[in-house]
Amino acid sequence: MFPTRDMPSPSSLFSAYASMAASMMLVRSMANELIPHPIRGYLLSTLRYYFKPRSPQLTLVIEENCGMSRNQVFDAAEIYLCTKISPNTERLKISKSPKEKNLTIRLEKNEKLVDFHEGIELKWRFGCDETEKNNPNGHNNGQRSEKRYFELTFHKKHKDKIVSSYIQFVLDRAKAIKDEERVLKMHTLNTSYSYSGVKWESINLEHPATFETLAMDPELRNAVIEDLDRFVKRKDFYKRVGRAWKRGYLLYGPPGTGKSSLIAAMANHLKFDVYDLQLANILRDSDLRRLLLATANRSILVIEDIDCSVDLPDRRHGDGRKQHDAQLTLSGLLNFIDGLWSSCGDERIIVFTTNHKDRLDPALLRPGRMDMHINMSYCNLHGFKQLATTYLGIRGHHHLFGEIEGLMGETQVTPAQIAEELMRSEDADVALQGVIKLLKRKKMEGDEVEDVADQNKAAIQKAKRQKLGNKPRRSGRNIVAKSNRRIRKFL
Ligand SMILES: Nc1ncnc2c1ncn2[C@@H]1O[C@H](COP(=O)(O)OP(=O)(O)OP(=O)(O)O)[C@@H](O)[C@H]1O
Ligand SMILES: [Mg+2]
């Protein structure tokens, strides 16, 4: 092959290198004689820099720490790269801490691997340098410290793309992997610290409820999922419009319709920890403030049965001063939460639950307070079929569904009651017969209750008529109005 303009021949390369080396030696010997030592060193390093052969490759060094804090790119790379391990990898580190669900696999020192991003080849190497650790006096006390880092090498022409898009991709992937592996926590109040006040205490949240297992209206379910997903993506939006990055949900409905299960499903979906704030256990405002400040970002604060929560002013003052403060109490708590979260919280969700939406303080229902009101209601046929799939694995039709559908139209039953029946047997026929019995029983009870109500009403009206009959008759209009008023009072 003939040498081309772009590719110098080995002999021309050799002669160029030899002449360069000779001139360097000449410069060096002249320099040794003429130039003082410190300036000579500076000149030589500058010459070396300019004559060094240039590589088309660029290497990014990603150290474990940046100053006192951790380098997030290093942590992300460590997590991301364990999904890229190839058959060529020879040494790996493996570990598992008590808090982790899965084994952790990491690259061992000097191990390399190759990744591709949009067709670009990326070479990763894990490095670890050991150095002697000097104490502040500059003396070595025999301790060694490790400097861990990744090297990421690729062609220089891709620098912008790698820095702007690949590194972000690694950060995002690592976050998703970490979320999947994360063990969620449920924080509840521990009131046994008599001196230092109430404290959060955490256990692993292993509630299995997910949006898939939850019996609820499919449109409502999708609306909730979309709302949550939109919320976590809108960090910049909240910042731009100057609002605290938080979202409030009010879950209401009869007992056993899945409000608590929905909270667990939300936590599992978002991988957020849950803080269960039982207001009844909080005696002082200072405790409330301390507890709220101790909650982490990316979490769900839950206040269950808000209509039954004890009112704060009463407890705070230890006297009977509740009547005129009662309304202020909840709005006070809400403003308190708003204020704290606006100043120091990110990605916070607050959920209130109640069995009686009509009894709630208007402060809670005011527009803009709770962003979404979610009605968890009695079980309908769709919800029942979903539970049958979850509990018994029935997909499609079953010969007892027709009868169940008829009965469900005539009575009200909660998903919790249906679930209880479905758990009684693994045999679908037996379990569904149990559901039929339950529905029939409830229907009869319902009929009886209606009968009693009708009888009571009739008795009251009869009593009214008798009372009115003993009095002198007045003008027709007056009598009707008055008897209506009385009947209303009796009822
Ligand atoms: N919609 C539902 N989908 C699936 N399972 C449900 C549903 N509702 C209730 N269940 C079942 O019933 C149990 C009790 O439900 P959950 O505690 O979520 O009800 P709740 O609405 O929070 O009741 P309460 O008002 O008494 O707090 C759950 O553990 C679950 O097994
Ligand atoms: Mg509940």
From TrEMBL:
GO terms for biological process: response to stress. Residues 455-483 are annotated as: Disordered. CDD domains: RecA-like_BCS1 (cd19510). Its cofactor is Mg(2+). Residues 245-380 form the AAA+ ATPase domain. It catalyses: ATP + H2O = ADP + phosphate + H(+). One of its GO terms (molecular function) is ATP binding. InterPro entries: AAA+_ATPase, AAA_N_dom, At3g28540-like_C, ATPase_AAA_core, ATPase_AAA_CS, Mitochondrial_chaperone_BCS1, P-loop_NTPase. Keywords: ATP-binding, Hydrolase, Magnesium, Nucleotide-binding. Residues 462-476 have a biased composition (Basic residues). Belongs to the AAA ATPase family. BCS1 subfamily. This is AAA+ ATPase domain-containing protein.
